[in-house]
Design goal:
Oligomer: single chain
Distance between the termini: 23 Å
Low-confidence stretches: none
Helix content: over 70%
Mean pLDDT: 86
């Protein structure tokens, strides 16, 4: 997540992640076949830290709580609106990135 926040999606590399983690590239590739899957897994692990809030009975209050939680996670991780913008821009070149983000990060939390 640190490298993703510092470098952005395009500049991030499996080689860089492996070096930062102190492992070989093959260790990363054994679990994640490509950068897209690695990034989605990293974002999914961050999204999993969102608190599970009970239904308050007010859609407005629930949405505001979700927005507060999201902003706090973005602040804590350093991956914020720029990453969301990256996904939207990359959708044209790499449509599976946004599709996987929705499938593995967004929908499980809805």
């Amino acid at each position: 997540m640190r490298l993703l926040a510092e470098q952005g999606y395009d500049a991030l590399s499996i080689e860089g992640v492996a070096a930062a983690a102190g492992v070989g590239k093959t260790t990363i590739y054994r679990r994640y076949p490509n950068k897209r899957d690695l990034v989605i897994a990293a974002l999914g692990s961050v999204a999993a830290t969102f608190p599970v809030r009970p239904d308050s009975g007010s859609a407005r209050d629930d949405i505001l709580a979700l927005i507060r939680d999201t902003l706090e996670v973005m602040r804590r991780t350093g991956v914020g609106f720029s990453m969301a913008g990256t996904f939207l821009v990359k959708e044209r070149d790499e449509p599976m990135l946004l599709a996987l983000f929705r499938e593995r990060v967004v929908w499980p939390r809805i």
